[in-house]
Amino acid sequence: MNKVQERPQVAFAHFVRQAVDDAREQHGWTISDVAAHTGVGRSTVFRWLAGDWQDYPELAKVRGFCAALGLSVAEALRPLGWPNGNPARRRLLIDEPSVEADLQVILTRLTDPTLAAEEKHHIRELLRYLARRPARQADQLFG
Questions:
Q1: What are the CA-CA distances from residue 121 to residues 38, 90, 94 (Å)?
Q2: Nearest alpha carbon to residue 77 among 96, 98, 56
Q3: Mind listing the pLDDT tens digit for each residue in 32-43?
């Protein structure tokens, strides 16, 4: 079976395996070391390696994994079926450049290793709130 026909789990597992192998070769890191340096939990790394997941990997975790290992996020996302490396455009069908730019800023903050976990939590909570609240019509907003 070639990579084009592989399930996303298998293709992504190959990508993660190569990244872990490279980290072992270049830095002498174990999977625990990779997990510690990337901020991705050890059990998550093992699930990725085994292709043992139903929901797609969280973008923030993939970004953190790639950033710590010096890998391209686009290369990580291709095995998941996002050929242009942009899950937001594919999954959300965003065509407005300003929305995409705003989302990129948010994703960058959420994957910033220097940003406090509490701040990331507040950002996620605000996003969840905004996603669930009913949309308001323009006449309600401007009277």
A1: 18, 25, 25
A2: 56
A3: 999 999 999 999
By the 8 A CB rule, do 60 and 113 touch?
no
DSSP 8-state class, residue 60:
H
Euclidean distance between CA atoms 41 and 9, whole angstroms = 18
Is the pTM value of this prediction over 0.85? no
Question: Tell me, what amino acid is at 138?
Answer: A
What is the per-residue pLDDT across 111-122, written as a single tens digit (0 to 9) for each?
888 989 899 889
Instruction: Decide: 87 and 78 in contact? Cβ < 8 Å.
Output: no
| Cβ-Cβ contacts under 8 Å for 48 (sequence gap 6 or more) | 12, 13, 16, 57
Reading the block at residue 49, the tokens are 């390696």
Which residue reads 């997941």 in tokens? 53
Beta carbons of 24 and 30 less than 8 angstroms apart: yes
Asked whether the beta carbons of 51 and 10 are under 8 A apart, the reply is yes
Mean pLDDT of 21-25: 95
